[in-house]
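>> received
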Amino acid sequence: MEADLAALEERISTLVTYARELRAANGLLRNELLASQERNRDLAARVAEATTRLDALIARIPGA
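>> returned
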């Protein structure tokens, strides 16, 4: 019985360690996702601005 408890204790300790590692990895992934989303918003705004500028230039072309 003592050996069973020791094995269970070891398994619980391992699970706690894995849970902590996963929580830390999850935090890193959340931060990376937020940074990627911010970059995506920035790039989308730049594309929209470029589209507006190109439309204005096309409108100035004679015969267009």
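>> Residues 8 and 14 are 10 Å apart (CA to CA).
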